[in-house]
């Protein structure tokens, strides 16, 4: 059966069962690579996307719970030519090692800056506490979020 | 067969357009000729065009056998090649880790890529540039020495110019590398030594195709593996009634359930006398999308059209499969005693003799490290396709050539019919399941009628089946002379091997191969010689002790599967030795920094210790208040790579036993720095990861099962817990570049333990320093 989803501003129809977690649909049906499979248990944050502006774990979000919600992935933020301030800041700070967590970090950071445009370093750390990084790139990630905040992280 | 998709993939990874014919004519490892030994990996890959080719557009295609693991190596190697070739960086295309296109450089490990691949590219680049300049000199009728090169254009003093593009067709690079062309002196470097942005990062922040997990080939199927309930369990058959009784519920619930079930289902058959043969038609009837179930002995996997269908089917299979349990695991609480009781191969790896002075004080201490997990954030993944008798595997293996060799044995195929192509994975930090999942994908691809199959492990698969970093025991005994100097140093380390990689000879080191109907045998563990060492890596002190004896005890029996985790034994050895140095300094009533310097002649070692002490504002005799403290740790990685000294500030919450680390300082000497930003990223990452290991990480198990299975049962350091890190890089442009990716972990661990001891007066000798253990020590 097909289910309609609103992803990065466009209506998309996906041929998936209603209980399919959003993650697999984003990746395999819509070809969006940003959200990553990390645990399937909502523990690591690598699959974080925004649903109506709120960060959710796409690995545990069945598509039939989404209705007409606006789903935003990292691909919906910007392009290489016109990156979102967060994406530009992550590149400027070289805030990645392996980078597997980064798209999830950016989406959690987007939600954070949307509700708190000028966070303190401690607030950034707290805001990203549920997103795991295994390489030890945390401080660069915090600097990138603070840099984006200076440059107008809200869109 | 899939040339188009490969090209798309390369384009997605940000490749520049190439004007080459890519007929692979090299790649087969060339036999080292008997004559002259060449530096680095040039020695075993002696053809110049195995490394560098110049296209008719004047761009360079640079090939390396080393692969990107998130450490920024491909960018650093591009910098080296571009520097010597006098080309701008964006005209250097990097090809890495492809058994049909790149040199065989073994495994990307041990912080050796800059040293081995870097030197090869530096020398090859200088030679290629020289060949092009000679060619230009002939054409222009000019003296080669008088020509200058700027961005791939060679200019004569009279202003005439020839570009690499014009010369490429007549430049014969299919010749032996000589290592005779002199690389640029560091004073002329314009690209090396600069904090160049990494080439892999844009795709990672934009959602581009960045990882093997993102590879999407036409017609691609999805596979999942159903692993046995434990090591050595055997698949006896199925309880088909459970497949028929497939329940309702959402897939999300199913996945969570599967994660809990994996490794816990060596269920007895109950009232069923005999397990049944698997009925694929039945599964297909119950679950749509299933393409095939693959069973070979005790290897069990499933292929489906859609990923969630494969996951669902794997759960149904897991529930219905009936296993005979393998041997029990040892008791975790007694694991170190258990290991010490096993047979060992013993070797004195270093010994110095001198007379022992009178009146020495002898002290000894025992340190322990648990099993630790690589715990990649993204579970391992591979894509395989069997087409026209040729198996192609896209893999995040650290060594595509050794993997190909093991795949050939496991699949009973000829090596030349297997191609392994590296694509990035989640950070691995050593030998994790990257190679294993490549065989899983290949085994499933054989049942996919030519279609590619993508297999990703689930979270519990990764924790339960990866080869862990080995548990270790370190015993140190020293004699302190009356004048407060170390007069004798004895050090023994017990450990399993730290490499069961596919590169080990004499067996097949791929998980699934041991469970096939015709099982393969793993390669026997072997002692890795110093100076690299295995369990004894960094066990030989860099300090100048008059008398010392260092013994490595290799335990060959492996109760838990183990292999290379970043630093091998160095993390635990540096933790133990640098902890012991502080214990001795305390006994000698000496300041830990002064005590180290008093035993250390190596000028560069002294320099990093002095630099970090200065940076941190180290004050001898700083008083302890029971809560706050400061400690130092130092090592020269493998005694032949990067020097790192680390100072850590801790705050101990005595009520909870929690250790917080607000600040870390480090000083680093990696010789000539290729990319300072990359170096700093590696050192800081190493410190933070080591802090996670040191404060939190241990694999849990009981006699029945490994109970570490997700991030709740294997917590790692989180964002709010990460300290500020200040790093001083000491650049030494005239010294050889040294590997740095694994240099900081040992010193950071020791600095934490020493800071805790400085704060509380109590010593923790068992890793990790969890709140429970810390509380026990404080109360004990």
Short account of what is shown:
The complex is a heterodimer of chains A (about 160) and B (about 775). Chain A has about 160 residues and is an alpha+beta fold.
Radius of gyration of chain B: 28 Å
Low-pLDDT stretches of chain A are none
**Proportion of beta-strand residues of chain B:** 15-25%
- CATH fold-level label of the largest domain in chain B: Aldehyde Oxidoreductase, domain 4
* Greatest interface by residues involved: A-B, 64 and 65 residues
**Quick one: biggest sheet of chain A?**
5 strands, mixed
CATH architecture of the largest domain in chain A: Roll
Overall structural class of chain B, as computed from helix and strand content, comes to alpha+beta
Question: Could you name the key traits of this structure?
Answer:
heterodimer; A: 155 residues; alpha+beta; Ubiquitin-like (UB roll); DNA polymerase, domain 1; 5-stranded mixed β-sheet; 5 helices; 32% helix; globular; B: 780 residues; Aldehyde Oxidoreductase, domain 4; 3 domains; 24 strands; 20% strand; disordered N terminus
């Amino acid at each position: 059966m097909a289910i309609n989803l609103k992803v990065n501003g466009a209506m998309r129809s996906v041929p998936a069962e209603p209980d399919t977690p959003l993650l697999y649909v984003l990746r395999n049906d819509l070809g969006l690579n940003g959200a990553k499979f990390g645990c399937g248990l909502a523990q690591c944050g690598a699959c974080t996307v925004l649903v109506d502006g709120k960060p959710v774990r796409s690995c545990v979000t069945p598509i039939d719970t989404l209705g007409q919600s606006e789903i935003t992935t990292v691909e919906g933020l910007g392009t290489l030519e016109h990156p979102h301030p967060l994406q530009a800041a992550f590149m400027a700070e070289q805030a990645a090692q392996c980078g597997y967590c980064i798209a999830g970090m950016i989406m959690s950071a987007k939600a954070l800056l949307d509700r708190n445009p000028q966070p303190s370093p401690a607030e950034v750390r707290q805001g990203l506490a549920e997103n795991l990084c295994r390489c030890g790139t945390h401080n660069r990630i915090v600097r990138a979020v603070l840099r984006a905040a200076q440059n107008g992280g809200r869109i | 067969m899939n040339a188009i998709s490969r090209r798309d993939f390369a384009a997605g990874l940000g490749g520049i357009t190439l004007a080459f014919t890519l007929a692979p004519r090299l790649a087969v490892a060339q036999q080292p000729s008997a004559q002259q030994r060449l530096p680095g990996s040039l020695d075993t890959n002696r053809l110049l065009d195995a490394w560098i080719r110049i296209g008719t557009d004047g761009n360079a295609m640079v090939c390396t056998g080393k692969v990107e693991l998130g450490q920024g190596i491909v960018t650093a190697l591009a910098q080296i090649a571009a520097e010597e070739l006098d080309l701008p960086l964006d005209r250097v295309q990097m090809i890495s880790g492809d058994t049909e296109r790149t040199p065989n450089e073994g495994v990307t490990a041990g912080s050796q890529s800059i040293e081995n691949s870097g030197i090869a590219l530096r020398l090859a680049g200088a030679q290629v540039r020289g060949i092009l300049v000679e060619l230009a000199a002939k054409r222009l009728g000019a003296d080669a020495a008088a020509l200058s090169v700027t961005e791939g254009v060679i200019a004569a003093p009279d202003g005439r110019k020839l570009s690499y593009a014009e010369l490429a067709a007549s430049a014969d690079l299919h010749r032996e590398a000589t290592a005779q062309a002199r690389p640029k002196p560091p004073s002329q470097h314009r690209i090396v030594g600069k904090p160049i942005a990494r080439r892999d990062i844009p795709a990672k922040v934009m959602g581009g195709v960045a990882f093997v997990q993102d590879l999407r080939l036409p017609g691609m199927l999805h596979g999942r593996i159903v692993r046995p309930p434990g090591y050595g369990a055997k698949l006896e058959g199925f309880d088909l009634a459970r497949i028929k009784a497939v329940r309702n519920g959402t897939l999300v619930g199913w996945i969570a359930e599967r994660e809990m079930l994996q490794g816990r289902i060596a269920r007895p058959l109950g009232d069923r006398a005999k397990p049944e043969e698997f009925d694929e038609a039945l599964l297909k009837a119950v679950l749509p999308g299933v393409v095939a179930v693959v069973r070979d002995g005790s290897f069990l996997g499933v292929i489906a059209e859609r990923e969630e269908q494969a996951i669902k089917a794997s759960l149904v299979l897991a529930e219905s499969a009936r296993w005979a349990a393998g041997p029990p695991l040892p008791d975790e609480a007694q694991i170190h005693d258990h290991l010490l009781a096993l047979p060992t191969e013993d070797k004195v790896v270093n010994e110095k003799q001198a007379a022992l002075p009178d009146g020495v004080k002898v002290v000894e201490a025992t340190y322990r490290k648990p099993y630790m997990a690589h715990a990649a954030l993204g579970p391992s993944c591979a894509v395989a396709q069997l087409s026209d008798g040729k198996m192609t595997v896209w893999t995040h293996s650290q060594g595509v050539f050794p993997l190909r060799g093991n795949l050939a044995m496991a699949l009973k195929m000829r090596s030349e019919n297997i191609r392994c192509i590296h694509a990035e994975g989640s950070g691995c930090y050593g030998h994790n399941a990257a190679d294993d999942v490549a065989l899983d994908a290949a085994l499933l691809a054989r049942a996919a009628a030519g279609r590619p199959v993508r297999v990703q492990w689930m979270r519990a698969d990764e924790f339960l089946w990866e080869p862990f970093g080995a548990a270790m025991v370190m015993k140190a005994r020293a004699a302190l002379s009356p004048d407060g100097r170390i007069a004798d140093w004895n050090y023994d380390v017990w450990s399993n091997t730290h490499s069961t990689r596919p590169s080990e000879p004499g067996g097949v080191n791929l998980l699934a191969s041991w469970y096939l109907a015709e099982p393969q045998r793993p390669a026997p563990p072997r002692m890795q010689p110093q100076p690299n060492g295995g369990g004894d890596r960094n066990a030989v002190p860099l300090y100048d002790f008059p008398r010392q004896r260092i013994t490595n005890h290799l335990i060959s029996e492996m109760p838990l599967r183990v292999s290379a985790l970043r630093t091998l034994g160095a993390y635990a050895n540096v933790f133990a030795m640098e902890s012991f140095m502080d214990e001795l300094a305390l006994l000698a009533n000496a300041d830990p920094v002064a005590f180290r310097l008093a035993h250390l002649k190596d000028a560069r070692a002294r320099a990093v210790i002095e630099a970090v002490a200065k940076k941190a504002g180290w004050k001898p005799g700083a008083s302890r208040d029971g809560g706050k403290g400061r400690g130092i740790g130092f090592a020269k990685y493998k005694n032949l790579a990067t020097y790192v000294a680390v100072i850590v500030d801790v705050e101990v919450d005595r009520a909870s036993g929690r250790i917080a680390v607000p600040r870390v300082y480090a000083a680093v000497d990696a010789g000539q720095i290729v990319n300072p930003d990359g170096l700093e990223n590696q050192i800081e990452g190493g410190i933070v990861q080591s802090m996670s290991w040191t404060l939190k990480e241990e694999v849990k198990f009981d006699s029945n099962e490994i109970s570490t299975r997700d991030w709740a049962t294997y917590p790692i350091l989180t964002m709010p817990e990460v300290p500020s890190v200040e790093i001083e890089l000491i650049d030494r442009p005239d010294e050889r570049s040294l590997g740095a990716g694994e240099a900081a972990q040992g010193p950071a661990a020791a600095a934490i333990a020493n800071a805790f001891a400085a704060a509380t007066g109590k010593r923790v000798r068992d890793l990790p320093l969890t709140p429970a253990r810390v509380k026990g020590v404080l109360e004990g």
